[in-house]
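Hey, I'm writing a tutorial for new members on how sequence and structure tokens pair up, and I'd like a real worked example in the thread rather than a made-up one. If someone can provide the structure for the chain below, I'll link this post from the tutorial.
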Amino acid sequence: MPPKAALSAEIAELIELFKSIGLTQSKAAEAAKSPKSASTLKDIIQKHGLIEKNLEEKQAVLLATLAVQGAKLGDVERGYAVDAILDGRLKSTDQVSAAVKYLEAHPLPIDQSDFDKSCGVGFTITPADIAAQVSSYISSAAVSGWANLGAVIGGLKNSPELRWANPLEVKNAVETAFTERFGTKETAKSKGKEPKKEPASKPAQKSEGSNATASTSRSIFANRGGEERGPRKACAHRSRPISESLEEFEKMRTGHYKPGEAILRMKQDLESGNTMMWDLVAYRVLNAPHHRTHDKWKIYPTYDFTHCLCDSFENITHSLCTTEFIASRESYEWLCDALEVYKPKQSEYGRLNLTGTIMSKRKILQLVKEGHVLDWDDPRLYTLIALRRRGVPPGAIISFVSGLGISTAASNIQTIRFEQAVRQYLEGSAPRLLMVLKPLKVTIENLPEDYLFWLEKPLHPKVPELGTSKVPFTRTIYIDADDFRLEDSPDYFRLAPGKTVGLFQAPHPITCTSYKTDPVTGQVTELICRLENEGPAATKKPKAFIQWVAEHAPSGSPVRVDETRIFHQLFKSDNPAAAVPDFTADINPHSLDIIKGALVEVGFWQLAKKAYNDAKKESKARTEKALKETAEASASSPIETASHENDDTPKATSEQLVGLECIRFQGLRVAYFAVDRESKLGCLNEPDSVEPDRREGDKLVLNRIVSLKEDSGKAA
């Protein structure tokens, strides 16, 4: 076990080092996984003083790529590549890869002009030059017709002259040259199955006239072999001229067809053994408003059409999917290749399931509609918005998943393992406040009415960076009703008549001398205690300590909590899907307890305001950075992208990243809590100079994030 702890500490140190040059948490963790490349990246950072250079994230990613691919380079060669990244000559991972290959193959000294040429530095080429290169290549390769289109484009893209040319310009030049030599693609003769190799840059369109939706679905099913799984047949419109397909597609867009009457399909490969290559639907008619185009367009793209293209446009490097999308990988890559756009890498992983939960959107919708849960963000659910409202920090989720690792096999993990991961994360990060869930009044008889003593206590005993809080100690305090018993026993160490107990972080213990009860119910309503501040009892260490809060109206102590919500498992079993007649039969009727009138120390207000302001500053910085990077990426992209600055396209805002759930703390010996979104805390919106306190109209609602570890003393 000790070696493992040392290794973890070393990796954590590397991650912090890699983050210091601009890598995100996830990319820094990825860079630290391989000891060899991590050592190389560390060496690069230290030798070139990169921490002080304020690098952009893109440059940091390129350096991490260099560490992986250039691990075998000598210090001089690697230093040359680092300088090329820092001075902006190498701007993409593709260029870094080319640079590594060049430096491995060429001895010192480096010919800069040859290096720049091989790595595409400052590359420019005119359309006329591209056309000349295309014409020369076609003549030398003895191309026979349109069937060779894909091979020609691929060969030209890999040629030294066009290695760094715009792929779309190369493709257009090749198609123009083919049209001049062999006529249009529609009139070119095909042999056997050759046409299937053509990259279909304009998917063919399928229209079923006025057929209903069911009829269209049945015809597609029949063409795919039907119930008998017979031979596949092409759609009657598969070979229609592209011009006609475009006309029909425009009719779909403008509302000429009703839903189910016409669809646009991609011309893929009906002979493939993969069903995801059988001319998938790209667009369908749908009369539903869109957040950007409203009701102007009557068509919507399908997931199969948009998935890879959106990933490509957004420069996604790796598209991560669950294993049910393995078959879709072929169509994902096919469409990117057909349109000659950047192709991300799709990788699949096994689904992670938590026992005793429901993740189906259909089933969650049923729970919401039938009133079994409050909403989609009900903290008893395990959607991301539900975990956020419950107060689970994003870092805790990342830590949990990272600890499990990645596998293609489906995983079923007990919920208690997730909660333990959250608990461990909060253990070292959440401030600690005095709190009592069920207040019981205590009057200290040997203190005067106006007695006041201020205690300064740390918010976390092991994390001094979190600071301290000041709490009053007065004649009247409150303890938790569960910390008092009328009948004492040898194995019970908390408060009872005639018994002494310590108060957390208070200077002296107290002894219960008497108590008062309700004449009707017989319940204890008040304890009369003595402060052991004199004699032998003042120096004797108590066997147990209990939490408390003091009553002091001038300072606003204690803070009264309107509602404390304690969430339990929503379902009674680990597999609610197996319940009869359906999963709702397994719902736990006691999954939510609401406690009114809990009390928290007055330090809560300072903590809440600081946590909220810190979260706002962090979210603003993250949003501004993301918007800046997006703008820079759009400006440097060779493809013109639309600007949405002045339309109603949803924009990322810092407010979306901040909620009241960022106010988290541990109630000492109680649990971890977060403020619920239904709360109203007026002081959070006041200037920093104004002392935070309860304002008129405030409402404080707390959600329990997770319980504390089992405490044998508490259980006693």
